[in-house]
Amino acid sequence: MYTISELAKALQISPHTLRYYEKEGIMESIRTDSGERRYTEEHDKWLRFVLKLRETQMPIAQIKKYAMLVKEGEHTTEERLELLKSHLNNIQKQLIELQSTEEMLKKKVAMYEQWLDQHPRFAGENE
Which of 91, 2, 90 is nearest to 45 (CA)? Predict the structure, then answer.
């Protein structure tokens, strides 16, 4: 079992973020008799998944919807699958856009490097 501080540290997020996810219904903690939050390995695993969804720009509303579907049970499997497939499609589009941007930036960097090679008196002036 983890305390809120221990889990937050392990996930490299703030305790406030854990409280927010709980408030939004994305996760639930276990409460001690004195009301302190406790978390299990399952919480850790779930939150790592949620954080990956956030890293890939899934909106909180979609994560909340997914979490609700998980809580509802196996009869929501098809809907969860569709939600994740849609997000995967969005990620694939982002990757294509990022690759295009990367290529453009590589060309721009190469252009500047070539220019500086041809004009060495300007190299290092902006430092």
Answer: 2
One-letter amino acid at 121 equals R
Token pair 């004195």 in the structure block, residue: 34
Nearest partner of 50 among 38, 66, 39, 36, judged by Cα: 66
The residues, any chain, with a CB within 8 Å of residue 69's CB and separated by 6 or more, are: 76, 79, 80, 83
CA distance 21 to 23: 5
The model carries a pTM of 0.80
Select from 2.30.30.240, 2.130.10.10, 1.10.1660.10, 1.25.40.10 the CATH code of 2-98: 1.10.1660.10
For all residues of the chain together, what is the average pLDDT? 95
- pLDDT at residue 125, as a whole number: 67
**pLDDT tens digits, one per residue of 12-22:** 999 999 999 99
